[in-house]
Q: What sequence folds into this?
């Protein structure tokens, strides 16, 4: 594996130059002392100083060469084809609507063809930027399993178990044992779109950062749509949310595959009267131990505000905020995320989810985002019709549990 050289700092270059200056000063001092030293000793000093000066000069030359290298982004050099495609996309297509050569540049930069139904794939840097922001904005995307797919035929095979075994003696006959059962899961796939607009004057302005504006606009629209679909989507031309699946109070062994288990609070629309913490503990321990590793709670802001006031018998809050920036809050020791699309507490509502979403819910991304430029429909605005295919569905119904505010 090769490593990419880093840019030398100004301090490193200055230090090398200072070392070289000191070597020359020593060389000068040796010459000044010529009358006080023997020829042999002086010649040895001069040879040593010459070698030191040559070494230092080589170090300085190397640092200046390194300083003049092209800038390195994200730990690797930008691919020339990607840089060319990015410049043509933003400066030509987005700002001016120039499409000349863009399709050929796409193929060179992205190694993918352009769909025949119109539009152009955004540069890879912008697409990755959108994905990064979506992870930060959409809480379910941040905790679920996300898979980039190349076709719409993504299928996942789930092992439902059923294999059997037994004990035998050394020479006993081995009878046939049961074989495991498999279930094929296909997360529903749909197309999500956004249609931000900017005036042509804004696009012509050299100080208007088109790339940042477009990434932020697409991220906000995509995150709002897909965040709701991952929770409540019905699976019709969109992902199927985990709250859209059939639920029952039956345990894992008795429940049909694809049906989620809900844990009732025992009170319609409210917590149990004796201790609301009991319902949260019942929810946690309804999940198998193997799934509780990396498990997380998901609920909306109103329930977060309510649960943050819960205390244990010693008066300690159950909710623990993150100790530093970027660290998630925890509830009963498990990560807790705020998902605006989770329902409020009401009669028979499934308002809190707990589970290992990485094992239980899969999101499929059909790369890449495409953009169609429309300067005609709504003058003087230029619309950018962006589309992306996103899917999602429960792939392991044992890995996600729901708290239901109901009697049973």
A:
């Amino acid at each position: 594996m090769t490593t990419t050289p880093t840019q030398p700092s100004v301090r490193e270059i200055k230090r090398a130059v200072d070392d070289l200056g000191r070597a020359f000063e020593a060389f000068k001092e040796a010459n000044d002392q010529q009358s006080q030293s023997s020829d042999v000793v002086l010649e040895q000093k001069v040879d040593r100083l010459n070698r030191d000066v040559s070494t230092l000069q080589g170090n300085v030359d190397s640092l200046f060469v390194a300083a003049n290298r092209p800038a390195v982004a994200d730990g690797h050099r930008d691919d020339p084809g990607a840089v060319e495609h990015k410049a043509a996309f933003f400066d030509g297509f987005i700002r001016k609507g120039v499409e000349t050569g863009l399709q050929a540049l796409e193929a060179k930069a992205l190694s993918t063809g352009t769909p025949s139904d119109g539009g152009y794939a955004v540069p890879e840097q912008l697409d990755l930027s959108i994905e990064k922001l979506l992870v930060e904005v959409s809480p379910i995307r941040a905790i679920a399993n996300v898979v980039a797919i190349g076709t719409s035929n993504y299928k996942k095979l789930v092992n439902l178990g059923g294999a059997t075994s037994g004990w035998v003696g050394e020479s006993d006959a081995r009878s046939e044992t049961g074989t495991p059962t498999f279930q094929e899961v296909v997360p529903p796939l749909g197309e999500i779109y956004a249609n931000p607009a900017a005036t042509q004057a804004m696009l012509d302005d050299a100080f208007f950062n088109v790339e940042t504006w477009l990434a932020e606009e697409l991220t906000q629209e995509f995150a709002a749509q897909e965040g709701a679909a991952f929770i409540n989507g019905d699976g019709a031309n969109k992902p199927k949310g985990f709250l859209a699946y059939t639920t029952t109070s039956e345990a894992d062994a008795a429940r049909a595959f694809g049906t989620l288990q809900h844990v009732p609070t025992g009170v319609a629309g409210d917590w149990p009267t004796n201790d609301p913490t009991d319902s949260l503990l019942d929810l946690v321990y309804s999940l198998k131990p193997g799934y509780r590793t990396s498990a997380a709670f998901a609920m909306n802001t109103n329930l977060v505000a309510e649960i943050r006031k819960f205390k244990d018998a010693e008066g300690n809050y159950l909710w623990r905020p993150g100790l530093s920036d970027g660290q998630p809050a925890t509830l009963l020791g498990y990560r807790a995320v705020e998902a605006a699309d989770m329902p409020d507490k009401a009669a028979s509502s499934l308002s809190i989810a707990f589970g290992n979403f990485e094992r239980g819910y899969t999101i499929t991304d059909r790369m890449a985002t495409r953009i169609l430029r429309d300067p005609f429909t709504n003058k003087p605005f230029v619309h950018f019709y962006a589309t992306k295919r996103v899917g999602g569905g429960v792939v392991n119904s044992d890995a996600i549990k729901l708290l239901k505010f109901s009697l049973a």
Q: What stands out?
A: Residues 10-67 form one domain. The chain is about 35% helix and 20% strand.
